[in-house]
Amino acid sequence: MILPRPVSFVRGDGEVVFDGTVHVSRVDVPAEGYRLSVAADGVRVWASDDAGEFYARQTVRQLSGPGAFRAVPPDRVTLPVCEVVDQPRFGWRGVMLDVARHFLPKHDLLRYVDLLAAHKLNVLHLHLTDDQGWRFESVRFPRLHEVGGWRADSRFGDRRSGGMAGRPHGGYYTQDDLREVVAYATQRHVTVVPEIDVPGHSQAAIAAYPSLGVAGGGVWTDWGINPNVIVPEESTVDFYRQVFDEVLDVFPAEVVGLGGDETEGGDGRVVRRIAEHLHQRGRRAFGWDEVLDRASDSTAGPLPTRMIVASWRGEEPGLTALERGHDVVMCPERYLYLDYRQSDDPREPIPVGTVTTLEDVYGYEPPDRVLGAQVNLWTEHLDSPRRLDYAAFPRLSAFAEVVWSPAGRDVAEFRTRLAEHHLPRLDALGVEYRPLDGPRPWQELPGVPGFPR
């Protein structure tokens, strides 16, 4: 009944009434791990750190029944007598949330922190900038959020259809908003990793400061790859150094994303110089696996080996990065892009990408040598919290088990545990997930074209 599945769960005879009291002891167990005992003499937890204690309490919450996930949980519940030994398989258990294509209001962002924590996930990677929007308040360069923070319209459905939403879209987070999100996440043992995308996916910044770009133009209203990139001049690098310095003042995380992906005619020198700046400031740069291609640019020089590579174009780039001495986070689109459609059912709303089923996600096995893995939620077609819930869940629950639990999982057993125990928890949390047998009528978007592969 526990999700993610623990290393060991032994159920005893009987049940005990739980009044919320947990006796905690510090012992030498693996980081983020714990031992939990539910017995007649009370609930006891042994952990070596605060994170382990927190995850043990999440397990107690699950054992308490779906009511424990409501805003006002029961005062007293009945727990099964049991012994649990548990620890995570990977240290990086992440979710990339694209708030650039469609802005997610702060209260919904905080809600997603809670949802990650409830699944024992520990990294929230925020994609804060792209061609379609700039979501980070800049005190030094305010036009970034004042101009780049909104667009006049949005493509609705696949770009090949030519359809538009017919309304402006915008929003940005103040620096105080983001400090609040970071503090809230820290209390729940979630690290917030910011990303400012360069040298491509930069049209919102170019709209605000045209001298940054190879060509001008406004904030992009389309999806896809924009050929306009930032100019590879020292003045541009210096501009972004100042932007990243503001980011570092808001986000204390060691890891900071700089993008580096999907750039037609992009410049590896920009990526390397910004990565070096982040490392000089005591941080680690995090880039999509195209940064490995930039390393072949003779004008750029080698990438710093401290740079972390996110392998999205399959696993091969990640394996290459490992050979070159980089740490790697796996996020292959075939298995871990949760904006891709969940079945061949014609009722799937705006079907894009390949079919990525619950079983596909659950069956993914990251290599043991990597830091971990993350799912990516790109939001071109996820324009509201309801649409985000539909795309994310319950596949995100399956992913949580992939990165936490030992290898050798049983998908049939998981589906039973999911249906009987975990979906009721999501119901209590108000998550509008996709039912296992297909979308509900109000989750469909008939007539809005996608582009299935």
Please summarize the sheet with the most strands: 8 strands, parallel, barrel
Number of strands: 19
Radius of gyration: 22 Å
Q: What count of structural domains?
A: 2
Shape call: globular
Describe the secondary structure blueprint for this structure:
Elements: E1 8-18, E2 22-26, E3 34-39, E4 42-47, H1 50-63, E5 77-86, E6 92-98, H2 106-118, E7 123-127, E8 129-130, E9 133-134, H3 143-146, E10 150-151, E11 169-170, H4 175-187, E12 191-198, H5 203-208, H6 234-250, E13 255-259, H7 268-280, E14 284-288, H8 291-294, E15 308-311, H9 316-323, E16 328-330, H10 333-336, E17 352-353, H11 358-362, E18 372-377, H12 385-392, H13 395-404, H14 411-429, E19 451-452
Parallel strand pairs: 2-4, 6-7, 6-18, 7-12, 12-13, 13-14, 14-15, 15-16, 16-18, 17-19
Antiparallel strand pairs: 1-5, 3-4, 3-5, 8-9, 10-11
